[in-house]
Amino acid sequence: MKKILIVDDDKAMGEMCKELLTSRGYTSDIVTSGREAIEKILPNNEIYSIVLTDLAMPDMDGMEVLKKVKQKNSPIDVIVMTSYGTVTNAVEAMKLGATDYITKPFKRDELVIVIEKILRMQRLEGEVDRLRSELGEKYTFGNIIGESSKMKKIYDIISNVSNTEANILIQGETGTGKELVAMAIHYNSARKDRPFVKVDCAALAETLLESELFGHEKGAFTGATKDRTGRFRMADRGTIFLDEIGNIPLTVQAKLLRVLQDSEFESVGSDHPIRVDVRIVAATNINLEDHVEKSLFRRDLFYRLNVIRIFLPPLRERIDDVPMLVSHFLSLHNKKNRKTIEGITREALHRLMSYNWPGNVRELENVIERAVILCKGKVIEPIDIPLYQEKTSFQQDFSGKPLHVLMDQVEHQIIVNTIELMDGDKEKAANALQISRASLYNKLKKHKITELL
Ligand SMILES: Nc1ncnc2c1ncn2[C@@H]1O[C@H](COP(=O)(O)OP(=O)(O)OP(=O)(O)O)[C@@H](O)[C@H]1O
Ligand SMILES: [Mg+2]
């Protein structure tokens, strides 16, 4: 087991901490100056998991110790001890990367609680790291997470196409990870040391988009007060990611086609052709073929872009990825919000897995972040995860059942949803449904919804 290093110029204080930690089964060492602390930590980073340091010390103070430890990017957590009335120091220390602080004089339990919280967090992180390395490349690709067969196919495609020069069209609903895939392709290609340049085609008006992509010369139009380098030029020998390609106007489509055919274009207001070597990855959440049929998108451009198409499946079609995504977002947002939520109950996970996720992974991430912030206990419970649009069970198996069974299913779902929506308050739920409390209880019994009774 790893040790705790106590740093305090006050010998008695150090001894007191050590004795306390020993009584709880933790091993620790004491030093009485910042300099000694650094000497002990830096050569063999491995043996300490926590440094508990006083702030005010002669020679090197606790803030310096903290800075030195954090400079080394070490996984050691630092707790600073401040004296009563010096909260600003504590705030400063937290900004510099201290994990927590404790104000002297403190009760024995206070120190133990802080230490245990950190050790629990370290175990959780260790577990996540272990899982991640065990899963290895198989279930993740860059920052993309998922172990469903659908995602594994996507990883195969990415690794096969990355190192080619083919243009790629990524199609998928909002929040399915199109941008992540585009980045994974770039960073797995020979172009990875050159720029990855993103252009959000939907966000810009026609003339602005044209000059954003191709640049303009000073005086090309009102407001063009100086030359501007376009994104294509910035992306030379790298990758350009054209997001929301379905929305670009026909004039810009024509110019884009020329870049794809001849690797050449002119900036706005110039007749001097510029040559670039750029790989194009485009993304859309609309059906481009429809746009082609309606003459909103050039057919020739569509063929040029669509050399390889990647269809990203919506989350509801790979619901088995939810647990892994949940644990990934849990550890991410624990860290971001300095929380130590340890997991999720089976019921809550079940709830996440029976939802239809119109906003896909982005929506799931938001739900988990919110739950991490608002969760009052150690694990996320159903009450912590209000969902925007619950899937009703009759949508799942509508066919081949008698009407009264389907009606029962709908009633069941409505009751569960309403109670959850009212944060478990059955009085409010009964009111919302305009039935009596007694009648609500009867229905809970009838549908055997015992967990809400
Ligand atoms: N498979 C995944 N693993 C981990 N994180 C994911 C995954 N898919 C999406 N995300 C996360 O969800 C969010 C949305 O992803 P991204 O921006 O790539 O989606 P998108 O398809 O481009 O959405 P939009 O069409 O709305 O632009 C990001 O925060 C991203 O990190
Ligand atoms: Mg996007």
Describe the structure.
This protein is of the alpha/beta class and 453 residues long. It has four domains: 128 residues, Rossmann fold (3-Layer(aba) Sandwich), CATH 3.40.50.2300; 166 residues, 3-Layer(aba) Sandwich (Rossmann fold), CATH 3.40.50.300; 77 residues, Helicase, Ruva Protein, domain 3, CATH 1.10.8; 62 residues, Orthogonal Bundle (Arc Repressor Mutant, subunit A). The protein is built from 19 helices and 18 strands. Helix 2 runs parallel beside helix 3, helix 10 crosses helix 12 and helix 17 packs across helix 18. It is flat, with a radius of gyration of 29 Å. The two termini are 45 Å apart. About 1% of the residues have low confidence. The chain binds adenosine-5'-triphosphate and magnesium ion.
Short structural description:
It contains 19 helices and 18 strands.
Largest sheet: 5 strands, parallel
CATH architecture of the largest domain: 3-Layer(aba) Sandwich
How many individual helices? 19
Average pLDDT score: 87
Physical arrangement of strands within the biggest beta sheet: 2-1-3-4-5
CATH superfamily of the largest domain: P-loop containing nucleotide triphosphate hydrolases
By DSSP, the count of extended strands is: 18
Structural class: alpha/beta
Relative helix content: 40-55%
Task: Quickly count the domains.
Answer: 4
